[in-house]
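#random but structural
TW: two for the price of one
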Amino acid sequence: MINYKAIKRQNPQNKGEYKWYPSIVLTNPMLLDELAEAIALNCTVTAHDIKAVLSAMQEQIIFALRQGRSVRLGDLGSFRLTISGKGEADAASVTEKSIQMLRVRYCKSTGMEAAFQLKSKGIGFHKVGDAAEPGTSVPGGSESGEGEDGGL
């Protein structure tokens, strides 16, 4: 079940107007140990072996991205780097110093996309409560409606 709540935010189409929007309420993240144990229950590989493979996979993804490569993980999706930077007057002026931020982007596969269509089997929602007005404190949560850990 996916929890959500209503959050009051500025309407992006009319900056002086506020509207209420649905926002995901994140619960406890699934950690590496729990993921490894869950996978081990469905196959013949031990949780320790799975953790070792997942840790090695993370290291190899970082290595590949640092080499300027994207990483495709079949039906899971892919990882790639993006940059943002300062605009320059001409192409010759664009240097490494023009780069301001480096990000890792995850792009879901078509299979992952299909699994999260609103009408997909197994998708359900539960409203848990509404956020306070902007600028007021929200007991036990953040004003943005996002979890403290950002998901992972």
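TW: number two ↓
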Amino acid sequence: MQAICWLLWSTVAPDIPRARLDELIAEATVDAYSEEEQRSAFAAVLHEEIETPFQTTVLGVPVTVTAITDAPGTGIAAVCRSGKHRQLIGILDLPLPDPPPAGAEWIAAYRRWNR
């Protein structure tokens, strides 16, 4: 599954050098020491840096991503809406549109950190 998600991401993600991703990781986790603190720090950065709302497609259904949140049991997730329906999708499982929203490089940095 992770390989499929990476393939989806790589088709819409800009070519971000590893050194730049490492800089973003260092920036996000500068004051976080444990793995849980670092994940929480990434959640805050993703919430702030990814420009929402944006449109994408999940399982063939057009959705609007209205926010990025840190949800218990789900982890860092996109809040997706389609009509009256709302669903949390893990940020690493979310197919991004082409072009991706502003701030999407932070998802690439989180993906690299999460490996």
